[in-house]
Amino acid sequence: MPMKVKEVAELVGISIRTLHHYDNIGLLSPEATTEAGYRLYSNQDLETLQQILFFRELDFPLKKIKEIITNPDYNQQEALQLHRKMLLEKRRRLDGMIQTVEKTIQQQKGEIHMTNKDKFEGFDFTRNPYEQEARERWGDEAVDQSNARFNKMSQQEKDHMSRQMDTIYRKLATLRHDPPDSETAQTAIKEWYFFLNDSINNNDLMKFKGIGQLYIDDERFTNNIDQYGEGLAAFMRDAMALFADRHIQ
User: Fold this and answer.
1) Which of 2-11, 23-32, 147-156 has the lowest mean pLDDT?
2) Which Gene3D superfamilies has this protein been placed in (predicted)?
């Protein structure tokens, strides 16, 4: 029996606004509407929605999902097998990070001792869920150069980069309530600029400004960054834009 948008939203646990957005961008347009204009979702529509949400859970951008599921060669069974493999891998990585969190709690209580290597078990920087979007924004060459540079790093260098990034985020989080154009904020964001330049060879100030905007445009970035402190992503966006505008020749 066809379902109205409110019923689908309640069944799935997503917002009506999200379903409307999927319809507006042509990602999921229900097969029928009532005479009053209400959307009616069929069982096939619900299966498509399930596929979309699997892809979203795996951090695929909506544009890429639409490209995949509208491809004439798209095979739902193959996609489900791929989803299963990727979700199992995601669970494996999350289990590793949970174990590291639990060990860190034990260490802080004085119950165990962790080596520096133990502290970073479970972190994996070989997979970048934002790579496709980076390619769309800045081209394949820039991303390929960045990947090549990262792949040449030793594990020790990768661990150092992770610790350095964490330190900068924590420092910026303590400043997020300050004006983004303050001296302290601009000094800290300069450190972030040089970190990105060293780690991904990004010395283009306009790209730096664009990355900052991406922290707000893409909720995945926002959610990850705001784990260090609510509002940090917006603060970094503003501080990065000011830094870039001041230094562009």
Assistant:
1) 147-156
2) 1.10.1660.10, Antibiotic binding domain of TipA-like multidrug resistance regulators (1.10.490.50)
